[in-house]
Amino acid sequence: MKLSREEVLHIAMLARIELREEEVEKFRNQLSEILTFVEKLNELDTEGIDPKFSVIPPENVLREDVPGMSLPREKVFMNAPETDGEYFIVPKVVKK
Q: What Rg value do the Cα atoms of the chain yield, rounded?
């Protein structure tokens, strides 16, 4: 499935990344290849297969929760469309 230039730019906008002109074509090709692969996966017959099935056994599922280093607040908010300095501001999505 070949993506259009506009679709790549739309995906970049949703991801909040700016692409140089030469990157648009590069990502257009890469994303198109990924979608072609996904289309092939959609052709597989998965009837009767548990959606949670994995050939790899779960490992470290319940690891200890240890706090680690985090990014400075300024860096975290750098690409956010809107903040109040402490929190992300997002559009209301729940109706009363």
A: 20
**Contact by Cβ (8 Å): 55, 20:** no
Among the residues of the chain, which ranges form H helices? 5-14, 21-42, 73-77
Is there a domain that residue 24 lies in? yes
Residue 12, in any domain of the structure: yes
Q: What is the CATH number of the domain that holds 30?
A: 1.10.20
The reply to whether 92 falls in a domain is no
- Domain region containing 18: 5-43
Instruction: Return d(Cα 40, Cα 33) in angstroms, integer.
Output: 11
The CA–CA distances, whole Å, from 49 to 23, 39, 46, 53 equal 39, 19, 6, 7
Q: pLDDT, tens digit, for every residue of 76-89?
A: 999 899 999 889 99
